[in-house]
Amino acid sequence: MITNEKLRRNPGRAVVTGGAGFLGSHVCERLLGLGWEVLALDNFLTGGAENISHLLEHNGFRLVRADVTDYVHVAGPVQAVLHFASPASPIDYLQLPIATMKVGSIGTMHALGLAKEKGARFLLASTSEAYGDPLVHPQPETYWGNVNPVGPRGVYDEAKRFAEALTMAYRRAHSVDTAIVRIFNTFGPRMRPNDGRAIPTFIRQALLGEPLTVAGDGSQTRSICYVDDLIDGILALLQSDLPGPVNIGNPHEISILDLANWIRELSGSASSTEFVARPEDDPEIRQPDITQARELLGWSPRVPIETALKQTIAWFREHPDFSDPRGTTAAADER
Ligand code: UDP
User: Fold this and answer.
1) Which candidate, 25, 223, 196, 219, places its Cα nearest to that of 131?
2) Catalytic pick among 93, 131, 156, 170
3) Are 286 and 131 in contact (CB under 8 A)?
4) Which of 3, 8, 187, 318 is the most exposed, having the fewest neighbouring CB atoms within 10 Å of its CB?
5) Omega of the bond prior to 97 within 30 degrees of 0, cis?
6) What number does the ligand 1 atom closest to the CA of 286 have?
């Protein structure tokens, strides 16, 4: 495990937007563990208080319900702003297209403005979706991507690409100390069972004995990373002075059909497989080139995928709240 020693030796105060989300909540928890104070901002559109309720007793932690597309004001000193607020699973951003574009654009502008005002380091949670349906494999940071701006996924991909461009503009024009991380498919505890992504969906289906819904013939691939590894990499980037973008992900690439079969086996489930229609513009392949993260940050993933899947399945068994409606009905914020 990377110790993120610099962050521990030099604790400060961080603002985490999207702090009640899957990744945001893990970022908050790890920063608190390193002795940082954390202010989490969240509008609970796709995040949930249950993700951070265990942190509320911590003296250094505060949670404020706020929409970063509105004006963001934070009193007092801040050393780091980590911008994680966004719907991030395909069914969420397909149902919340305008909210997704607003948080990636206006929300990023506000988060950058906060970092500028406070003289804080700014870290943007960007995405492998910046590469779209890639024509280069694996994807290095120098690849500009193959994104359909007018397809349904364009709302997320282009919002994040805009957010990257805006981050670089604040760096160049206002000398804000910025970093961009491109996050590849990540899984672990606190994913919502109904968020529509492959791993929580297959686990939920396997545990309920329902058919595993494999899109297309399942030959498309993803490279999947355990959340603990991902947070290590993100904090390694935060404590560095690199601007990025830096890919953080596990190059362990697997076809979706193999992934479904693996999850069924590890769950001890007798679920069948149901082949369903492939979503529009669903990328064929995806694998991070993590040379930069290895060489410049000394980071690489440690947790074997089988161990990580077992831990995640165990967490889902202990949290069988499979009726969580967020992600399947969330359309409230479309104005
Ligand atoms: N997928 C699937 N069945 C599901 C959900 C997803 O086969 O129930 C497929 C999806 O079409 C895609 C892959 O799994 O090819 C990964 O999808 P996910 O939503 O997890 O992430 P992303 O597309 O953003 O990488």
Assistant:
1) 223
2) 156
3) yes
4) 318
5) no
6) 25
Residue in 220, 226, 247, 225 with CA at minimum distance from that of residue 236: 247
Q: Are 2 and 236 in contact (CB under 8 A)?
A: yes
pLDDT digits (tens, 9 = 90+) for 84-129: 999 999 999 999 999 999 999 999 999 999 999 999 999 999 999 9
- Domain locations in the chain? 5-186+225-248
pTM attached to this predicted model: 0.95
Strand ranges of the sheet holding 13-17, from the earlier edge strand across to the other edge: 61-65, 37-42, 13-17, 80-83, 121-127, 178-183, 246-248
Ligand 1 atom 14, closest CA: 198
Instruction: Determine the Cα–Cα distance for residues 230 and 128; give it in Å rounded to an integer.
Output: 13
* Residues 6 or more apart whose Cβ sits within 8 Å of residue 313: 203, 206, 207, 263, 266, 267
Q: How far does CA 282 lie from the centroid of its chain?
A: 18
| Residue 71 annotated as catalytic | no
User: Which ligand 1 atom is at minimum distance from the Cα of 201?
Assistant: 8
Which helix (H) or strand (E) segment holds residue 247: the answer is: strand 246-248
